[in-house]
Amino acid sequence: MKELFQHAATTDGVTVRVAVNYLPEQSHPEAGKWFWVYHIRIENGSHEPLRLRTRHWRITDGRGMVNHVDGEGVVGEQPLLAPGQSHDYVSGCPLTTPFGSMEGFYTFQRADGSPFEVRIPFFPLSAPETAEGRPPN
């Protein structure tokens, strides 16, 4: 299956692309559990090498509850991206509602050691309509 990146944001020459998919096989609506997988591609369109140091996510569920998640790197890595290089990774997000959203930023480090933030675009998490959960009207 070819993934299409549905969401993108560019900050200082760095583009973050996101493709998100609902995973019914890992979701249990009857138990109040829904799961999505997201594929991120980070493209260094700048003219200098950049190292991804940290991530910050703002995850909002269908009730408006916000969870902030901070951590080192992405999936255990702090990739160094040369100009023109990209880095892909896949991760997942469970929620206790059939819809929600994610957004955030990465902190990168330039060759001179200075940090800067790169926006992760807002993207919705939405399960198909079921008797157990319907997206808001």
Commentary on this structure:
This protein has 137 residues and is mainly β. The protein is built from no helices and 9 strands. The chain has a single domain, classed as Immunoglobulin-like, CATH 2.60.40.1470. The strands form 2 sheets. Strands 4, 5, 6, 8 and 9 form a 5-stranded antiparallel sheet that branches. The protein has a 4-stranded antiparallel sheet with strand order 1-2-3-7, with no helix packed on it. Strand 1 and strand 2 form a beta hairpin. It is elongated.
Helix-strand pattern: EEEEEEEEE
Report the sheet-strand fraction: over 45%
Overall tally of domains: 1
CATH topology heading: Immunoglobulin-like
Q: Which spans have pLDDT < 50 for at least 5 consecutive residues? A: none
Sheet with most strands: 5 strands, antiparallel
**C-alpha geometry:** elongated
